[in-house]
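hey so u asked for the seq, here:
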Amino acid sequence: MRWRSGRRSRNVEDRRGFRVSRRVAGGGIGTIVIALIALYFGVDPSLIINQSVQQGGEVVSTTQQHSGSATENQLAAFISVVLAETEDTWHELFRRMNKTYREPTLVLFSGAVESACGFAQSATGPFYCPADQRVYIDLSFYQDLKQRYHAPGDFAQAYVIAHEIGHHVQTLLGISTKVHQLRSRLSKEKSNQLSVMMELQADCFAGIWTYHADRSRKILEEGDIEEGLNAASAIGDDRMQRTSRGYITPDSFTHGSSAQRVGWFRKGLETGDINQCNTFSADRL
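ran it, structure tokens below
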């Protein structure tokens, strides 16, 4: 991916080196507030890791001096450029829809992080929190993407960011609120199906970004599309379940199968039309 000469976003918050821990505190107000926020936005419970089950919990953060390796700092620079690319693309697409794009913040963290959606550890993977409109990424995930999920390449990394920004687009368009309110009234199975539709639409939006960013600024190099498609396939629910436990249970899918994720990313990539990303009315996912 051609990125070194690209603009860097001002919306990166570097929390690497912050040590985040929990201690039990009285009252339980913080826990209740976080739970209500999570319920309203339909946040995946896996994002709220180590939530206090006592009367309440308090997150304690202490700052440490951070000095990343050259590789880490280069990756952070890359992420900043990709975020800027998404900003430029979605500003233009929202303008065409007579809407205003509000730029999200991307938070880099190490180990664990506190968000408005709860307390999360790096094992959660990258996530978007609609309550504070931030994307959270631990740079160690990209090592997992390469080694554990066998999806190397800089554009595979860019796809991950573009997918999370796709969730921000859903929030700005009002899609997230409607879907999350509906999910709270449905059975577990039906709720999971809506979650899959949300995730696949975010994949499609990632493809939309790729289509327009490349036509405007020629960001793609040979092999980039294959890297993105491989990453979409690598983190499909079926592939991840089969790897972790040897079998799959489709009713428990929350992100979509490998084929579905590749298909919707490709649809956005090939059409560049946001109207083609309506997974909620598709005859077939």
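Residues 188-217 form the longest helix (30 residues). Residues 12-281 form one domain.
lmk if thats what u needed
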